[in-house]
Every structure is written in structure tokens, then in C-alpha cells.
Amino acid sequence: MPGRRTTFEQFEGVRIRRVAPLRLYPFSRFFRGFETAPPVRELFGARAPAILRALRVEFFSPPFGYMGTSDVDGHLIVSLHHLKTSDLRTLYLDVVHELCHVKQFRAGRPLFDRKRKYVDVPTEVEAYAFTVREGRRIGMTDRELVEYLKVEWVEPADHRRLARRLGVLPRARRRRRASRRPAA
Q1: Contact 119/158 with Cβ under 8 angstroms?
Q2: How many domains in the chain?
Q3: In a domain, 82, yes or no
Q4: Which domain holds residue 118?
């Protein structure tokens, strides 16, 4: 195929081919009905069916991770473990979150920013805000949403900051210092 590296590179007497086939599946082979789901209609409008027909999904097998969106071509990347073991509500919200990233990718927005913490990347904050709105629409409590926002790679203080930013965790109240004045 034109533009595709199929040659081996040599190093220390071994040869390595750096290009391997990637198997992408149609999104709708595994995720159906999203084209009519309210948050997806909000994201893509009348073009939702066409966008989801064109969307592809890749699966990976290690027993960790959740979902992501490729910053190369905008396809979804899904952990088979997550797909098999997570509850349906979490899977639904994760797909909604990633479809927000698909829209961002299609608009030319950068999905990753290594200079910022994960919870401060504008595209993540936007996708989480969108997902929290959907979580509320389907009846989740703030406590459930705070729990949904927890991921292993985010420090507890950053998790709390994100939850506060999204309005699912009340702002910490500052304690008033006791007066040092003697009582009258």
C-alpha cells in the first residue's frame, strides 16, 4: 500500500517491522441505538447516524483501562475487560464521554495536553461536564457521579477538584479561626 512502511529495520542482528495491522470494527457492531440517544443527538444533531456509521472501534485485551479516543483518526479504543465487566450505566456514560471526544477531534481540537494535569485539560473537563449532565438526566445522584469520576491515574485531591468544578461535590468550607480576643 502506498505510504505504508512494510520494511524491517535492523538492530543488533535482529529485524523489527514497526507497522502491524490494526483491526477496527464498526462502532454499531458493538454499540447500538446511540444514534438516537439524547446526548448523542445533542453532540451531532441530525448527522449522528452518519457519524456513528463511519466511526470505528478498536479493542485491547490487558485487564486494565477503560475507553479512549485515538488522537490520530478519532476512532474509539476500548478495553475488553471494561466491556465485559463494567456495569451497563458506566459503559453507557463512558461511550457518551468518548463520543464527546470524537466531536472534539472532528473539530480539530487537541485531545491530549501533556503540560497539564488530566483534570485540567479543557477537552477532558468539557467531556466530563457533558457526561455529568447526562448522568443527572438518567437519575444519578451527585454521590454516584463523584464515584463515577474516580480513575486510578488521578490523585484524590485532583479528583475532588474536578468533582467540585463539575458541581457534584460541594466546595470545601473554610473554617473560621477562633478569635484571639478575650471574651467580654
Answers
A1: yes
A2: 1
A3: yes
A4: 21-165
Pairing outcome for strands 14-17 and 56-60: unpaired
Contact 159, 149 (CB under 8 A): yes
Rounded to whole angstroms, how far apart are CA atoms 53 and 50? 5
In a domain, 76, yes or no: yes
Give phi and psi for 137, each to the nearest 5: -60, -35
Vertex 176: Cα angle to 173 and 181 (nearest 5):
180
Instruction: Give the chain's mean pLDDT.
Output: 91
Is the pLDDT reported for residue 4 higher than 80?
A: no
Q: Is residue 2 part of a domain?
A: no
Q: Could you report how far apart the first and last alpha carbons of the chain are, in Å?
A: 89
Render pLDDT for 137-146 as a digit per residue (tens, 0 to 9).
999 999 999 9
